[in-house]
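Hi support team,

I'm opening this ticket because the web form for multi-chain structure prediction keeps timing out on my end. I have pasted the exact lines I submitted so you can reproduce it. The total is 1199 residues across three entries, so I didn't expect it to be a heavy job. Is there a limit I'm missing, or should I split the entries? Thanks in advance, R.K.
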Amino acid sequence: MVEKKRNPKLESFIITMKIFLRDPGAVFGLVVVMIYILIALIDEFDPGLIGLTDVNSLMPNYYNPSPLPPSSQHIFGTTFPGIDLFQGILKAIRLDIGITFFVVGIGAISGILLGLVSGYFGKWIDEIIMRTTDIFFSIPFLVLAIAIAFFMGRTILIISFALIIIWWPTYARVVRGQVLYIKELAYIEAARASATKNHKIIFKHILPNTLAPIFVQFSMDLASVALIFATLSFLGFVPTLGGSSSASSGGYIPELGYLSSIGYSYAVVGDWWTIVFPGFALLLFALSMNLVGDGLRDALDPRFRR
Amino acid sequence: MVEEELIIGRNLKKFFPIKTGLTSRSNIYVKAVNDVDIVIKKGEVVGLVGETGCGKSTLGRLLIRLIEPSGGELYFSPPPEVLNKIKSNQKLSDEELKNYSIFHMHKNKLREMRKKFNIVFQDPYSSLDPRMLIKDIVAEPLFSFGWKKKDAYARVQELLEKVGLPAEFMYRFPHELSGGQRQRVAIARALSLSPEFIVLDEPTSALDVSVQAQVLNLLEDLRKEFNLTMLFITHHILVVRHISDRIMVMYLGKIVESAMKDEIFKDPKHPYTQALLSSVPIPDPRVKIERIILEGDVPSPINPPNGCFFHPRCRHAFEPCGFTTDELIEPLRFVLDNKRNPEMGNAEIQEMNVIDDLNMEVTFNNPVQQGVVESIIQKEKEQTRALYGIKEISVNGNLLKIKMHEPVDPKLKDIGNEHLVACHLVNPPEIK
Amino acid sequence: MNDETMITVENLKVHFVTWKGVVKALDGVTFEIRKNETLGLVGETGCGKSVTSLSIMNLIPPTDGTVVEGHIYFENIDMTNPLVNMKKPDVWLKYGRKGKVKLKYNRRRYVKRQEFVNKIRGKKIAMIFQEPMTALNPVLKIGYQLTEPLIYHSKNELAMRILSRIDINNANFSDMVDAVLNNKEDKIKSYLEDPKLKPLMEQLRSIMFRKDLTRLQKSERMNNIRNDKPLNSLERKYLEELVENNGHERFFWRFPIIHRIVFKRIIMEAERKAMELLNLVNIYNADIILKEYPHELSGGMRQRVMIAMALANDPKLLIADEPTTALDVTTQAQILDLMKDLKYRIGSSILFITHDLGVIADIADRVAVMYAGNIVEIGPKDDIFYKPKHPYTQGLLKSIPTNKTMKEKLHVIPGSIPNLVNPPAGCRFHPRCPHAMEICTREKPVMKEIEKDHYVACWLY
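Hello R.K., no limit was hit. The queue was backed up. Here is the completed structure from your submission:
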């Protein structure tokens, strides 16, 4: 055997990273997203590190419920009923990121699998899966989420499942389109001529070649799930944590959308910080995720590698 | 060379359905391969030439069952007793079909058979997975037959050496290689299970002249070394002439001529072959060949012409070649024009009425004479071949009735010396 | 530059800036195209054939690369720097630290230059592309795509055509018809020199070139050519003004209703001209083709339409970039046949770019062989094919399979095409050359005339 002198897979990864890092927007987005994820991880494993105590609750302070402007004690001020916004946002990031990754992750995986099957085998399987996606596309997603939450309870888990149900069709469509194109390429034909089995063709040849657009879609979607949650909270469908923890949260769950929806009624009478800070935290996350997505699209585009 | 049949195809057919709607099953088909008989002998290099869309690639893929056939039988080196049965057109039992016909084989048996044949594609850029290393690409067929990693990679190294690539290429990605090098990798992959038969689908068309020479030399060497049988599909006639022993010419899903190389270049029988060979640009300015310029375009394979598929463009088409009344409308209007042929007097065509493929009526504004029309048709026949299709005419005042000859499908016939031609000029049928 | 040359390319250097470095795509290309000749440009992929044609047409995208040195003279205009008053270049390379190179361009200056070049491009120099499907707009009918540029760029010529047809007297006309029908060369030439009669002469000739008509039919069609509806005074005024003002309309004529009345003639004439153009490329059912969309035509037909479009403004130079590569041999034969006819019919120079030596042997008068951004040999066709001097040309010719090479090994040029980011020093061919000498690795060979008209860039001579 020849000595392995270089690692071509690593080399191509380095090129991708180089192209990605050339884009200042993408780097900014990546840094912000990293900070968010870091905060979420600290919240999860050692909340004391940044001075948080109960990460599942916003800790209302009923002695002094009216909002206070930003001060040295409360950097971002407080919101009704006496919740410290800075701490609230830090806690909310954990929950938002967790739900986001959960929804998009599960949605993407099931969508990718169904899309692969649908595109590769075609015929009636394709027909069934694609018509199912049509059905889901035709229902407005907010209405579906609200309806499910209405009938099955408002716990975060159930709303997440409702979102997953509307999330997978997008991935199924994207992947199917890719598969239909890749399936016709000569290397797939060559693999079939060499008696490669179907599952190997799907997972070794087709899947790796569909991943680039999926990554982009994935990063963009991470932003929009957080926004949908915010929308739901804002509309009044405040999710609860469910189970025993709902008691400890006292009805106030740490969620960015919910925080801003509480602040909404105070902001209109002049307490601007109650909506600006949580809103900005949400916006920053969505924006950075989109910037990362754009950067990824460029970095994974073979045209930029000439 | 042993004269032993390796591949025998009978009535091979591949029709691609055209989807017209969401669920509706259409009965419109692209007849890519239309009733082809083919025999390839062991150790032979057969060149399959033809123009874009004539079905040559489809036939190549059919021969290794890369696509599902629409009809016909294909045998891969059948035992002598079966061979005799096939040759004498006897019906084979279901048992025999299951055992020897590639198209009727069980999935698992077909998988085993795949060791014996493989394919090299035209475009070396799309035929290698861009996300796999060369070693994994070449070893893919080995892995699918359960080779151990260590053995497989050792074999890959050996193969790369055979195709003239250094061993360090194992750890490269396809995009780091040039077109010629990629094509060598594709050849190494096709050879990895030491197959007996390889289909080469335009392997040099995407390459430059100097690289093409390298690949052709390599194929020649490999063929001698492994005693390979090859089907070399290309539109590049000079290449086919260089490498193959026997040449088949395809037109619109049918093989129109098949002969040994020297024979076909010296004495092409089919008018299409003649035109094709004459239009090849020869890189030698002093060689002046009289070009036969074909008029018009290749007809659509969805709805091929009657009789001989080539007749609308043929310079020698005559009575049985299958002219229909549709093809006669324009020529008649052209020929029976009193400005072109003043003998028509003041008669002008008023209406043309096609009754069916073989009958039509022409109405003039003034009476015409049978003799005049007959003499005009006789006179213009040489230039306007479609007039040959007219069997008889009868004039009744203003009305001209035309009857056409019945079309006869030309069959591939051996005219000696393994030269097969499907043309009425060579085997004239009885004209009724 | 003498009278006989159409275009001169001098020491042209083109660089492209990529992720991997600066690609020296052209490295001092020098050649000329003479009047009424076909120059064949052959070479392998990536040797710079297409870059040469793109730089003549000024079509290199300013985000990719630019001409860094050299000149292209066309009718005494330097196409690389057509605006003499422009002191600074519009696209340039900026050399930074650590050997990093960036491509910069000034949008304003670039647009200015393109505006100037547009007057030449498409009119005096036209181009035919390899893939006609991408060059034709799939959602517009052929007729629209053919007539649109005629209507907007050469209204005055269309007006001249109408006027010359209507104004000519009978005696003169029958003399012209007679000249064309009997192929009286001097007479045709003298008529073509008269600016008033030239358009009519061209119309008559386009009928003469048709292969599907008998002599009788031709003369009948020629005599019918003047059966126009007579011009009313408004139309006549409009057309005469168009001719006078070189295609520019006064505001009065743009007034909606008036425009509609007078413009009908121009549109009809453009259609007529489009049909003539299609006849010129041997499409005789032109009226049907004009109403079709590009996808309804076959590949050969599309390529003919492309050629017809290129011919619309009587270009002096026609650049054909691999026009037959995407076609089948029988269709290719049709197109080559047509292009040979065209040279006689319209009398323009052709730069024919291809990688197929067989096609070159058929169509070219002189041949230039390119290798890795250089022209290595240029000379008359027969010299190149029978007395090739440069080792690369020799190797290339030997590596084509012909009837002489049957069943024996083909000649192979060892090695592969060099990477143009870091091309070999000296002669770029030396690493693959069987006769490489010491000097080849150091210095770049210069073009030397070794026989009449036969130039070679090689240290062997």
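A quick check on our side: Chain C touches chain A through three residues (CB under 8 Å). Let us know if the file doesn't open in your viewer.
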